[in-house]
Amino acid sequence: MSGQTITWSTSDAAIATVSSSGLVTSVADGSATITATSGSLTATSAITVSQTAASVEVTPTSKTLTSIGDTVTIAAAVKDGGGNTMSGATVTWSTSNSSAATVSSAGLVTSVADGSATITATSGSLTATSAITVSQTAASISVTPTSKTLTSIGDTVTIA
Question: Domain named BIG2: which ranges (predicted)?
């Protein structure tokens, strides 16, 4: 049908857009109807957009906590095959070693004792991990006694 003008439209541009050449682009999950009009003739195509999770990414992928009770929030992003973040995707959290670090349902990791733990974010069958190391560092050091005078050769003192 050369010479015929076709006008394209979408029932919901928040779900799918359509170009003047009929190229449909997904925007968000949902359904939209694409309509082609030429004169008094119309035809439609039902478009359903349903993102499929392809990967899970976590940030940070590793962290060292240096005090008991320290926390870090790990963020997880579920992405589709195009690398687009899927809003509203469900993520569950787990730890490989709750004796070293625990994790809340929101991804908040809390150090419990020296050691290491792998924190796993899971969405469906997809996972991503963050390596957590708990390694306490001394905040201060002290000795007792802080001073002592030895008055004879061979005198000793134990400093603790």
Answer: 52-133
